[in-house]
């Protein structure tokens, strides 16, 4: 590609590439960075290779740039309980809202979860292990552990939303 062709190609494809990244990461700054990384990589590689469909090739590069970004992003994160999770896990008691100990609530809810989710949450919050340590102990990858943890939180939210606050889940389990 000549520099004029590359410039025209950039002008016609920068919008769709940026939108692709924006819808995936939901951040203008990150989408802009990933878009520029994609075009830099494309410009470097297009001079070295013969490409039949430049647009398909560009979006192939975009997918790899996104995967690289996500790998780095999720390797750093340990998925702690966030303030939003704490709010969702708080139990309303009449007119006042009382936050109970999150670990205590998790322990009480563990028997109601599927075995895989129960095991992950127990290792994560009762035994205070990191995602990486759990993955190594179970012989799974970190993505499996974090996805299972997210599903467990989703299950807990469902359990809590289905619970009548006048007979809340914590009170029911104390009798057992």
Q: Which descriptors would you attach to this protein?
A:
mainly alpha
Structure, explained:
The chain has 176 residues and is mostly helical. 71% of the residues lie in helices and 3% in strands. The chain contains nine helices and two strands. The protein has helices at 3-25, 28-46, 54-76, 83-88, 102-109, 115-126, 131-138, 142-161, 169-174, and strands at 91-93, 96-98. Strands 1-2 form a two-stranded antiparallel ribbon. β1 and β2 (96-98) form a beta hairpin. α1 packs parallel to α3, α2 (28-46) packs across α3 and α6 packs across α8. The termini are far apart.
Summed up, the helix count is 9
Span of the ends, CA to CA = 73 Å
- Major sheet size, sense and barrel closure: 2 strands, antiparallel
Query: Over the alpha carbons, how many angstroms does the gyration radius reach?
Result: 23 Å
Report the structural category. mainly alpha
N-to-C SSE string, H for helix and E for strand = HHHHEEHHHHH
Strand order of the largest sheet: 1-2
Uncertain spans, ≥5 residues at pLDDT below 50?
Answer: 88-100, 164-176
Helical coverage, percent range: over 70%
Number of strands: 2
**How much of the residues is beta strand, in percent?**
under 5%
Q: Give the overall form.
A: elongated
Mean of residue pLDDT? 77
Describe the structure concisely.
With 176 residues, the chain is mostly helical. 71% of the residues lie in helices and 3% in strands.
């Amino acid at each position: 590609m000549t520099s004029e062709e590359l410039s025209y190609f950039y002008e016609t494809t920068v919008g769709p590439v940026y939108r692709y990244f924006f819808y995936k990461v939901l951040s203008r700054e990150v989408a802009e960075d990933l878009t520029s990384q994609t075009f830099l990589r494309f410009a470097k590689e297009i001079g070295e290779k013969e490409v039949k469909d430049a647009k398909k090739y560009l979006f192939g590069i975009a997918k790899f740039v996104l995967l690289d970004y996500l790998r780095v992003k999720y390797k750093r994160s340990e998925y702690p309980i966030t303030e939003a999770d704490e709010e969702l896990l708080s139990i309303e008691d009449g007119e006042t809202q009382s936050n109970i100990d999150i670990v205590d609530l998790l322990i009480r809810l563990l028997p109601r979860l599927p075995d895989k989710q129960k095991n992950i949450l127990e290792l994560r919050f009762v035994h205070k292990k990191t995602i990486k340590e759990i993955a190594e102990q179970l012989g799974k990858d970190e993505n499996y552990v974090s996805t299972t943890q997210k599903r467990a939180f989703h299950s807990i939210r469902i359990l809590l939303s289905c619970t009548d606050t006048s007979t809340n889940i914590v009170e029911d389990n104390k009798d057992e």
